[in-house]
Amino acid sequence: MDQIVPGGASATPGGLLYSGNDWNFQIIRNCYDAIQEIADKELGLEIYANRIEIITSEQMLDVYTSHGMPLGYKHWSFGKRFIGHESAYRRGLMGLAYEVVINSDPCISYLMEENSATMQALVIAHAAFGHNHFFRNNRLFREWTDPSQILDYLEFARGFIARCEERHGQRAVERILDAAHALQNQGVHRHSGARKLDLKAEQQRARERREYEDSMFNDLWRTLPSDLPGEKDGPQDSATRRRLGLPEENLLYFLEKNAPRLAPWEREIIRIVRMVAQYFYPQPQVKMMNEGCATWVHAYIMRRLHELGRIDDAAYLEVIHSTSNVINQPGFEAGGGPSFNPYALGYAMMTDIARICVDPSDEDRRWFPDIAGNGDPVGTLRHAWAEYRDESFIQQFLSPKVIRDFRMFRLRDDTTQPYLLVDAIHDEAGYRDIRRSVALTYDPGTFYTEIEIVDVDLLGDRTLVLEHRSRKGQTLQPGDARQTLDYLVTLWGYGVVLKEIDSQTGEVITTHAVNPPG
Amino acid sequence: MVHAGEAVRLKREWCRPVDIIDRRPNPHGKNIENRRRVLERARGAVQKAVRDSVARGKIREIGQGNAVSVPSDALHEPTFHRVFTEGTREIVLTGNREFSRGDRLQRPPAAGGPGNGGGPGQGGEKGGAEDSFRFVLSRDEFLDLFFDDLELPDLIKREISTTENSVPSRSGLSNEGAPSHLDLGRTMRRSIARRIGLGRPKPDDLREIDERIAELEARRPLDAEEIEELERQRERRSMIRQRMARIPWVDPVDLRFRRYTMTPQPSTRAVMFCIMDVSGSMTERMKDLAKQFFLLLHVFLERRYKKVDIVFIRHAESAEEVDEETFFHDPRTGGTIVSSALELMRGIQRERYPSGGWNIYVAQASDGDNASSDTQRTASLLQDDILPVVQYYAYIEVSGSGAVIRGETDLWRSYRTIAEQNGHLAIRQVGDRKEIFPVFRDLFSRQHDHAEA
To answer: Which end of chain B is more exposed for a tag (fewer CB within 10 A), N or C?
Structure first.
């Protein structure tokens, strides 16, 4: 990154912002201003308004538990997460992150009081500018999330669930929440294009509307036989299926709309879980880029602060030390992988993109004719941050140099063979193979399990039929699948059948069936 | 990549200021409720873990910073997720030093079957990998779970009868009292009401008139009208001053004091006497059983009383008071005279723990051996001197091996006779470590007839 020199505008040098480790609010404010000048003039970052909150390490543990959201409803699973973090922290297995930042407008960054002044500055650059810019500009977040309303919505959700607990009892609410949580990965719309949530309207949805929907005619409530006795199957069947919106990949959506036995408040709870899951849906798909962006931004800004004489050598050494800890990628012998440290890969790729823009080698010119030597590293990065997600970013930008630097190699694991085969290493023949495989691991199709509701037996016992398309040897973990289906039965109220189908041959690999108790 | 129009918009937005908020004073522990729900959910498992962990450790350390592990299935959150079991997959790793294409590597010993490590990208996130879940319980949580359904027998009845201390407690208001008990808020409310009711002039009115008078006085000569006004104002001023003097800011009738009455408080001090036979016939194993029992009793008492003293008395032919270390680990040999220990206990109790101010518990462990000449004396000492002053007397008789069914010892026989007449003497036999807890529970399990009595 050292190659990058600010192009046109450059921030103004000045005196030291602080010296030593101690910080106070004035120092934080001064650091913020200095950082903002660099972020603005040199990097052209575009951010949501910032809110910086100073918290203690105990509060940080709370923040961890709730995905960084300042408020959440009550559920034991959050307590479990909290206890897990707490005990890891107390035993010294886990350092707390210096910061947590959330995708909201204003963008809230949490700073721990234990941080040194340098760390506070670093965290401001990292979270309040790096992550903030990413949240605001990346396509996925722009299309899927509405940061100005999420805090209000969570407030509403907490209040609603608390009221339900008062009225119907904690156990009844927990029964629904447990089941909905188990299904929340199957509770998002993935393929329906830009469907940004209007969380404000969500809150204001009148309860009457819900009740009206319930009172409306619903095929599932029909107790009489079909009105056209001659046409038991065929067109009438498929018409019903269409009316129910089948096939449906969003299980929670289907249950919320169609499960026959749920009370209105139970549907609303399912909806809340679904909304929250949908809000967080983009995050894993851009995690590597998001962290890479933030790390690259903080590394750049802190280097510039040092060059401009705003922080001293000791502070800059602390920055280097901390950054290199964060971007450490242990090799496979040291227990690294198969998943990458997102900070390491993201930072390495972004640094490399900047290098290619400024100082390309012949190899880079062959691989990246579009950007090699274009002299605009910051603009190129900003474009990448805005338009890509992890998978496509890797597919596009993982360069031979980064593959060499990490000394990546690919293993082919064929369970019919007694050995693992090294089938690609960091050489000319292997770059593309490795790049494709790395990109594949970031493909949402790989890390989400897609299950569809394909049919419901309306004329018989209302059994719900689901399909999981996969292939042999890649089926669902049976114990968990069974327990999750139990939860599905809880919500649906009738029997459920899940077929695992080989997507190539169409043959059924396994079938799980669960009937309602009693 | 910033276009001109965009740049202008950017500039405008940069002007939005940053908020820096200090959240440290905000309430901590947002997750306390969630944490409680976890304990609730895993109650059975946690309780078992807690009881297991008590089987280890020193008496005084029990319940302090306790970590317990529970099997994670109690708190498992299932999801649909794929696992790789067969077929082919590709894994990219870093840090290659020596491999080149075509090398074959030994398949690493997989934990629990091939491919259980999860495919790339889903790195063993959840999949039976978490086999236990660790809690750090606070002392209170720990003890609550541990002594879930146990209660000290006759606790309430006896406590009230041994009441000694009185503590002040709030009981309404009064018109008189010490200045330190003044209820300022109420007093001032009454004062305001009275001042308004009696029409006490406000200090501001006086100041206004003062100013006006000063102004007129400074502006001599005055015309007739002004002189008249000055006169009028002076008159008003003196009236206001009089009124203000007559109607005080705070009048004795305003005063309200917090009233306290002394309420009797059950004594919350307890002393626990551990009496153990350390004669040659007591093996280390038997002592260990006794220790388990003492330990449980101590923790149990500590939960009920603010302050629990422990007195360790060991005896063979003669008794002595010792510290915990010596009590459990220093071997002694010799014959056994139980009454010596009871005498010593009674002496210490009389001297340091008068029964009026202390709840007294005695736990005695022995193998039942006693010099036959002493048994009679022991029994009468127990019945006449000790039982009347103690809350509870637990005697456990440990035997060398759980398998042997023993006949009754002399000591047991005489204790049993006394126990039949005295509800607060409990005697039990323990032969094995795993019986300790059941026996303990048996002694202290909640007895409804007692509670109603």
So the answer is: C
